[in-house]
Structure formats: structure tokens, C-alpha cells
Amino acid sequence: MDQGSAFPPPPPQAAVEHCYRHPGVETGVHCTRCGRPICTECMIPAPVGHQCPECVAEARREFRRGPGRRIAVAEAKAVSATRVLLLALAAMYVVEVIAAGPGRLIEGPPPGVLVDLGAQVGLAFSPQDGFFGVATGQYWRLFTAMFLHAGLIHLALNAWVLYVVGSVYEREIGRLRFVAVYLCSGLFASAASYALLDLEGPIAVSVGASGAIFGLFGGFLVYNWRRRSQALANARLRSMLPWIVLNLVITFTIPFIDWRAHIGGLVAGIVAGYVSEGVGRDRSTQRLTAAVGIGLVLLATAALALWGTMRFREAFPEAF
User: Fold this and answer.
1) I need a surface site. Which of 19, 159, 190, 244 has the fewest CB within 10 A?
2) Is 129 within the bounds of a domain?
3) What CATH number does residue 155 fall under?
């Protein structure tokens, strides 16, 4: 009688597998996402097991298209425009100090440096460049002048008011409308300063964010006036009006303050603040009318600047 072997037969030998990215490397590990064999060089730790580089890249793309995109959008929406503007003003002052030298940290750069950096000047002459200024077509100075300041105290005062008023106003109307009111007011203020210059006086160099900040005063004023039946808005109106009057008194009291920019910014802020909320009952109509209103304010700014250029051309025909 044949008893046979007392031991069970050996298990079948497993087939040798090779990494799909490195065919010459044997492995017994598989990607937990796609199941393909991977070697130690291709193994990327995952919540469960390991994954191959291609599956990890695909997972990242899916994340960016889905949850990652939503997170990025939410983070972008959370960025405060007021803080971005404050950082821009501070960064430009650093540029000013670098251009003028560290010895000008407190008093700020001289007018010549400010002009080189983009200060607003209606019309001026230099032996190297000839006639230059807004009147010669350098309308970009109406924008760049909003981010320059004539000294550290000038910057600190504007930054403080921008932070106090801007933080509240932006929270009330939203970031996009806030930026629209700020930029429209600042540009109109620069255009008013340029167009209403005393052409018989000395060359005026104008810089500062105060025109745009007066625009925030005007915008926040009209925002609360439209809601004056509410207790909070009524209280804000009572506190804001004396503050605006005080600043206007200071504007007309100190000789070197550009009253044209302050008044222009205040008026533009009232108009831009009013139209930025739009009219109509549904949201789409409100957005459309708000965009049209802001566009009209910008159109008025351009018209004012062109009128100022006509004044310069009539007064100084030899410069053109």
C-alpha cells in the first residue's frame, strides 16, 4: 500500500512582477489606486498603502478642479481690499525712500524724485526731456500719484484714515464696490487737481491718497444716508458729518493741501457710492446699473482731464 508523502504539496511560486515605470526592477508592491506594480522609488505614501506618481498627480488635478478650486476662491474672497491698498501704499513709500536715500525716511523724497516716480504735474520742463507732464499726454500720472506720499507723516495719516473708514465701508458694501468707489474717487480727485490748477502760479507737484480717502468719506456718507431710518446708520451720520467738516476746514486752512483733490474726491465718492449700489429689484439689474453708473463717473473723469489739457494748451502753446 502506497502511503504517499506525509507533507502537503508546496504552494505554486508567485509570478515575478516588475515596476511599470522601471521594467528592470522587481517588486511585490502595488499602487492602491490603480493596482499597478511599483518599486520603492515610485512609492508615494497615501492614507492607505502607497500610490504611484501618476495616480498622485491625477488626484491633485482632481482636487484643484474640485475642492481645491473652491478653497482658493474662498481664500481670494476673504482677502481685504483695504489691507491690499495699505500694503501698496507702504510698498511705494519704501520705493520712494530707496530712490531718495535713507536720510529722507521722515520728510520724504524731494519733488524731483516724486516726479520721476509718477507724481502728478500738469506741465513742466527739463533740459533732458523737454516738456513733460499730464498735459503732454502722461495721463497715467493721475493714477500713480494716488500711491505716492510726500513724507512719513503724510502716509501715516492717510493710512490710518483708510484703515478706519475703509475696513467698515468695505465690510458693508463688498470688496468690488469698495475698490470701484476708491479708484473712481481717486482718479476724479487727480483730474480735478490737474484741471483746476492755477496756471499762473508755480509748478505744482501733487501726490497722496487723500483724494481717494475723501471719496470713501463721501461714499460711506451716502451709504448711511440711504439707510438713515436705521439706528446704526443714523448714528454714523451724526458722527461722520462733523468729521468731514473738520477735514474740509483743515483742507482750506493749510496752504500746501490740495483742496481741489479733496473736494473732487468727496464729490466723486458721493456719486460713485450712490451709483455703485445700482437700482432695481433684482440683483442682475442692480449690477448692470451699478456698472453703467461707475462707467459714467469714469467718463466724467476723462472729460475733466481733457478739459484741463485744453487749458494748458491755450495757456502754453509753445509747449505743444
Assistant:
1) 244
2) yes
3) 1.20.1540.10
In contact, 170 and 182? CB cutoff 8 Å: no
Q: Of 102, 140, 103, nearest to 119 (Cα)? A: 140
**The pLDDT value given to residue 109:** 93
Strand partners, 17: 27
pLDDT, block means (10 residues), the chain with 320 residues: 56 72 86 88 84 87 72 62 96 95 90 94 90 95 97 95 95 94 97 92 88 96 93 91 91 90 97 92 88 95 97 90
- Based on the structure, what is the number of domains in the chain? 2
Q: What is the pLDDT of residue 1?
A: 46
Distance separating alpha carbons of residues 197 and 260, to the nearest angstrom: 8
The C-alpha torsion from 287 through 288 and 289 to 293, rounded to 10°, is 90
- Length of the chain equals 320
Q: Are 26 and 16 in contact (CB under 8 A)?
A: yes
Q: How far, CA to CA in Å, does 235 sit from each of 129, 227, 238? A: 54, 11, 5
For residue 96, the enclosing domain spans 81-319
Q: Is residue 160 part of a domain?
A: yes
Longest alpha-carbon distance in the chain: 132
| pLDDT for 5 | 52
Mapped onto helix, strand or coil, the DSSP state of residue 227 is coil
> Which pLDDT score is estimated for 184?
97
Sign of the CA dihedral running 250, 256, 262, 264: positive
| Residue 121, strand partner residues | 205
How far apart, in Å, are the Cα atoms of 141 and each of 114, 174, 186, 207, 320? 11, 28, 12, 10, 18
Q: What is the pTM assigned to this prediction?
A: 0.77
Q: Spell out the long-range contacts of 20-28 with Cβ–Cβ below 8 A and sequence spacing 24 or more.
A: 20/52, 21/52, 21/53
* 131 and 31 in a common domain: no
